TrEMBL record:
The species this protein was found in: Chitinophaga cymbidii
Keywords tagged on the record: Membrane, Transmembrane, Transmembrane helix
Protein name in the entry: Uncharacterized protein
Segments traversing the membrane: 12-29, 35-55, 76-96, 102-125
Keyword Transmembrane helix attached: yes
Highest taxon in the source lineage: Bacteria
Length: 136
């Protein structure tokens, strides 16, 4: 018996969307309440929701879908790591006066949210391209 590498059922995408919506609402409520933009809170909601969306099964789950998800995740990891590294290099290595300038390194939640956002978008792009090519 082959075990599916994606542990969540296809309907958990709805749970992921609810978590993302809750994270966005919480982000804006926090801004109204305290007057700050807490991007780590937003990234936490995005990353948890995208985990459920990306790692859930598709309705038609086969070897091709698994291959597309792996390809999307592998490329997204490289792109997100490059973006994170460039951001940290360009903005955190300059001689800033730490008393006045507030620039923070990208957190793990932000990196995970960026990676999963790229992977999810790229997966659905690849899936759409595959469907177009199969229809020709």
């Amino acid at each position: 018996m082959k075990q599916n590498p994606f542990p969540y059922s296809w309907w958990t995408k709805i749970l992921g969307l609810l978590i993302i919506t809750g994270g966005i609402i919480s982000f804006f409520l926090q801004h109204q309440k305290k007057g700050i933009f807490d991007f780590n809170e937003l990234a936490a909601g995005l990353s948890w929701g995208l985990v459920f969306i990306f790692f859930s099964r598709e309705r038609t789950d086969d070897e091709m879908i698994r291959s597309l998800k792996f390809k999307a995740l592998a490329r997204a990891l490289i792109v997100a790591f490059s973006i994170t590294h460039l951001y940290n290099y360009l903005f955190l290595n300059w001689r800033l006066k730490r008393e006045h300038d507030i620039l923070l390194s990208i957190s793990a939640y932000q990196f995970l949210a960026l990676t999963l956002l790229i992977a999810t978008g790229y997966f659905y792009y690849l899936k759409h391209q595959t469907a177009l090519n199969a229809g020709e």
